[in-house]
Amino acid sequence: MWEDEERLRATLRTEVDGPAPAARTDLADVLRRGRRRVLVRRAGAVAGALAVVGVVGGTVALSGLAARPAEPASGPDVTTTAPPPPWTTLDRAARQPYGTFSPAFSAPPPVDREVKAVPQCDLAFPGPEVSWLHPEPGAAVQNAWSTTTGQVAAPGRASPVHSHLFPANLAKRPDSVDGHTRWIDLTDDRGTGSVSLERGSASVPPQAAADAELWAQGNCLPPRRMVRPNGVLLQLYPVRVSEPFQSLTQELRVYAPSGEVYSISLRNFGSPDFRPQADGRAFDRTGPGRETLPLSEDGLTAIGIAVADAL
After folding, report:
1. What is the dihedral of CA 211, 215, 216, 218, to 10 degrees?
2. Distance in angstroms (rounded) separating the CA atoms of residues 230 and 134
3. Closest Cα to residue 243, out of 130, 105, 45?
4. Which residues pair with 235 in a beta bridge?
5. Cα(236)–Cα(223) distance, integer angstroms
6. Membrane spanning segments where (predicted)?
7. pTM of the model
8. Which residues in 176-205 are b (16+ Cβ under 10 Å) and which e?
9. How buried is residue 275: exposed, middle or buried, by Cβ count under 10 Å (0-12/13-18/19+)?
10. What is the pLDDT along the chain (311 residues), one digit of tens a residue?
11. What CA–CA distances, in Å, run from 257 to 20, 199, 231, 261?
12. Are 118 and 101 in contact (CB under 8 A)?
C-alpha cells in the first residue's frame, strides 16, 4: 500500500480487523478497438500530443498522463477506431480544490519531468457501506483480470501475476484476517507501470455503494459509470496525481449485486519501484516509475468489463 489513500485504507483495515443506463458495449468490442489501434500504430500513424495540463471553467484537463493510442491514419488500407466505451458522466457538481499539486522536496519527480500542477481535493473518509479488508479475489475474477490485462498490454509486455499477503494483526484484533493484493507489471519502451487487483465488500446495492465512494480517490470531478447486463456497476475515476515522485493512478471500481467489490488500479510504477515493509503490512516506494500510465483508458475499461462480466 502506498500514497495517501493507501495509508488511509491500511489504517482503517488495522482498526477494523486488526442509475446509469445499461451499457451495450461487449468486452469483445473493446478488445477489437485495442487491436485496431495496434494495427494503426504498425501502419505508421503518429502518436498523440505532448502532456498538457489546464483548468478551463473549473474542469481539469489532463492529457498525456495515460498511454495514448495513435491517431488513426487515413487511406483505404488502414482500419479506423470505434467510438469510446459508453461511460456516463454523473450529474454532480465538482468539488472545490484546496490547492494544486506540488511535489515534496523529499521525493520529487525526475528533473526531466514537467510538474503536473493539477487541482487537489481531499480524500473522502469512507463510510460503513463498503469495507476494504482485501479478502482473496475469486478465481473467475482473477482469471478474467489477468487474461484481459495480457491482451490489452500488447505490443507491450505483461509480467506474471505478483501477489502479497498483508498479515492479520492478531495482537491487536484476535478476529482480524489476512489481506491480499495482486498486480501485473506492464512494460514498454517508456518503462514499467502496473495494474493491481484488490477485493472489498459492500453491505448495500451497487449504486448505493458507488455513491458512498464518489470521492474516494480525492477526485475533484465526479467519476463516470457503466452498468453491465448482469447488474454489475463500474465506476471510473479521473487520473490522480499524488506523492511521492508525482505518482499517477487511475482507479476503476466494480460493484456487484452479490456485495463483492473490486478495485482495479492502473499505476505509473511497478515492481522495480516499491518493496514491502519489514512487517509486511505496507509498501515503501523506492522509485519514480515511468512518466505516463502504461495503458490507455480503453485498456483499463476492457479489464474492468472482463472482471464485471465474470461476477
Report:
1. 170
2. 23
3. 105
4. 225, 253
5. 5
6. 43-66
7. 0.76
8. bbbbbbbbbbbbbeebbbbbbbbbbbbebb
9. exposed
10. 444 545 445 444 444 444 333 334 455 554 554 444 433 333 333 333 223 233 333 333 344 566 644 444 444 444 445 555 589 999 999 999 999 998 888 888 888 998 988 899 998 887 899 999 889 999 999 999 999 999 999 999 999 999 999 988 888 877 778 899 999 999 999 999 999 999 999 999 999 999 999 999 999 999 999 999 999 999 999 999 999 999 999 999 999 999 999 999 999 999 999 998 888 888 999 999 999 999 999 999 999 999 999 99
11. 15, 14, 7, 9
12. yes
Name the helix (H) or strand (E) containing 235.
strand 233-236
Residue 170 DSSP symbol: T
Q: Which of 280, 215, 269 is CA-nearest to residue 244?
A: 269
CA nearest to 236, candidates 292, 181, 307: 307
- Cell 462480466 locates to 309
Task: At 35, list the grid cell.
Answer: 487491436
Nearest to 19 by CA among 189, 245, 257: 257
Q: How far apart are CA 26 and CA 228, in angstroms?
A: 9
Q: State how far the Cα of 240 lies from the Cα of 269, in Å rounded to an integer.
A: 13
Q: Nine-digit cell at 169?
A: 494483526
Amino acid at 92: R
